[in-house]
Predict the 3D structure of the following.
Amino acid sequence: MKSGGAPPHSKTRVRNASLQARPRFGVRVAAATFAVLGAAVSLKFVGLLLLSALFFGAIDATNAAEESLGTKIKKIFATPTPPPRKHRKRSTKKPTPSPSPTDSPKHKKVSPTPSPTATPKTKSKRKKASPTPTATPEESPVPSPTETPSPSRSPQPGAEKKGAPNVTLTPDEISGYDNYSQKVRQIIDAGLQLTKQNLGYNYGSADPANGGMDCSGFIYYLLNQNGFKDVPRDSSQQYVWVRKAGNFNAVLSRHEDTFELDDLKPGDLLFWSGTYSIDRDPPITHTMIYVGREKRTKKRVMVGSSDGRTYDGKQRFGVSVFDFKMPPPPNSGDAKISPAFVGYGRIPGLSED
């Protein structure tokens, strides 16, 4: 070995050490690069997660906003508006009828002044209607110029009603009067005398002393005054009285020139039905006495008491001479309020001498 020099095996150690150190440095570099790459990847992944979170968060926010708007709109249209006006109207109506029932009985007990409300009026009307002495309140006739209507048949003279004056005739104004039998002339003369007394139509009366008579009351009074007995009081029973005697002629036609009137004679009793509404059997509602034909007009005339029949085209109320005319066809299908001439017949017990 040479002095002052390094041993030969020391150089080899240095080389080996350097060789061993190189691979360690490369591993570190590779690990660093992998670490950088992994960090970059993780950053990208985190970024994607953030982006996705922001995206879905925005979508949820819009849905929430839409839902909030939708719910607000639903609440606006779904909530019903309470009707306060109806409750106010009911409240105002309720106090008005409350004082009426309390005041009405007090007024009735203290004084007869009627209360302004509608309910006590009906009660006061009923109380007033009860004491009125009406004979038959069911009879409410239908007025017509050829019928005998009586809307309110209270015992008052018919002269108070508006209408033309009552009419009378003398025997010289009747065609063929001299050819009548003595008994027929006696009856017609007595009837014409009653037409001169200004008697009205007084329902329920059969005495001229009451200021008037009704139709059947006129017949009842006239025949009793002229010697006829057992004369019924109302027109329905007078019709039965004539029918039982077998001297009745029925008339179905509504024409004045019908053959059914060929046997009509002065002094015959005339009968109608349906001149006013009444439940009666037989349903006869009106009667008069046939006089004959008037010389001036050549028309058939009759005498009796009526509440609106006509003579010479004008309505008369009371005991008078009237035109004998056939009623027109009915205006309705109700026979009770459709005037119809039923027929005529001789007075039972009337002699032709």
In short: Residues 173 and 295 are 5 Å apart (CA to CA).
